[in-house]
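Q: Convert this sequence to structure tokens.
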Amino acid sequence: MMHYRKGENIEKPLTKDDLPFEDFLPKGTDFLWMHVNGGTKVNNVVNYAKNALDKGEHKNIVWSGHGGGVVKTISCAEIIKRSYPLYQVTRMCYTSVEEHWKPQMEGLEEIVAHRQIPSLHIFMSLEPIDGSVSGLQKPNSKTDFWIYDANSHNQQSNGGAGNSHNNNSRGNQRPRKGNQDNQRRPQKPRQQNNNNNNNNEGAANKPDEPASSASSGQQNKSNTFYSIL
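A:
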């Protein structure tokens, strides 16, 4: 690719009929379509959508974003949910983009690369939506990721606080590899200490030997002296 330079990107236009809400949203339904990209200012688009809802111009809003605008798309939906009881359905699809690479040398042809970029679409409505629609999130409710057993939570908060703390403290410790008691290596007999003790005993007895020989010599001399007398 060193002999090519990046050209323009041509994105396939997306219409309202191409949005992934065909299972519950009839064609021709009126809604406010908000396009969000990486450079969009969140406060501006959120205030615009709020004004449309307050004036009664629209009851349905669709937030759409792809690439660097996905994170801001989610932020816009979460901010406006704090002010209105909105029903929400979130869907994902792909947007087709063509990348053109221009040649810088004669004899080379233009390269066209086709890419599929993931895009996020969030449908929000003030009117109720059928509960059978997949991915439906009702106003002031949580998704399945936040469902938990309330009874177990109360038990832990009342009586199992200390135990849970101990379990957590134990859980944070690094797990041991098997039972160390069974994996201990057999200790070798301490031969060096025994040898040292024997050497010490022998060294202690060595000074006594010349003393005994000296005493026996004195006795022999005394005996010989008396025998001469």
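The longest helix spans residues 208-228.
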